[in-house]
């Protein structure tokens, strides 16, 4: 089944490229789009060229048939230049191509940019970072092919996700990256559709795989953990059907790095889950806040088969923080987009001085429902807050004779952390685009 995609090729060719080697650029583009369902309107394609300035060769609404598109690519003019400003190119894509006037579909069609270049951009690092981030903040996925480059660190800054940067040795080998790119585009298209379908089931499903991720700033008062936060987490889960297997729970804390306290497969009873929640303590108070690392850990280690994830069950993240900003904000936003594209629902709870604007960016729509602002920890377990969180997820409202949390243990001991095996995320094999 063909899925929607709005695809832009962003091209730079240095003075080393001639008409013969430029053929390999065009062949790669043609090979990528050849099996795409252009005629039915599922896939739209644009090409942008960048030198010192950028120009749009054609936009997303220009060609509506595959025959016309392939012919246009074949006739694409060679624009060689000594200087290539990739930041200008990225800005052009965002402002002139990914717009409704240029044929972009704002919903139901993922936006993807594939950079093709054989040279390093001379633009300032901060300028490139800013332009790339502005585009990624819109949910756009970026891939990059650097031909013959001995250093791809610049491309990796633009798109730091694993497997998104390709580095063929020569122009002749450009075609070898085609299959990997197409496979990822197919997965993105599949995830986009599956995500839309799966997210719709969250509010009316009694089953759920739920991850609670929390961050305590170093200014949090230690007594507030036992007095307010632990009861808050326990109350959220007290009506969840953990004992009969409908609901699975994982717990993650994050500071400088994320730490999985237990994954979805670790505990099968509410008594065990509540017992572990009681172990939350002052050691989790830290100055650094790496929300991006936390979401990446959840995506790659928890929402996987080994992490206890179930393919036919909605995924929910309840993220709780009192920090003003995530110290790895670009990764934070990027990982949130990846999770949401895969159908994961993100509910964000901002306590005290938390950056609500940032949480609105990472939370699922509608943000008015999925972003909850709390004045302080003393009110976090109020009925209004609890009901707001439960209102986002049916599985938190079901009552199955829950086991109440036991009094906090007075004995000390080290928390056992699960052994986490890194496995690639995935929810099944995507069908080929066509």
UniProtKB/TrEMBL annotation:
Q: Where is the composition biased (Low complexity)?
A: 421-434
Record-linked SMART domains? VWA (SM00327)
Region of interest: Disordered: 398-434
**Pfam families this protein is in?**
VWA
- Name the InterPro entries on file: ECM_Assembly_Org, VWF_A, vWFA_dom_sf
- Per UniProt, residues of the VWFA domain are 6-185, 209-389
The protein here is known as: VWFA domain-containing protein
- What organism is listed for this UniProt entry? Arion vulgaris
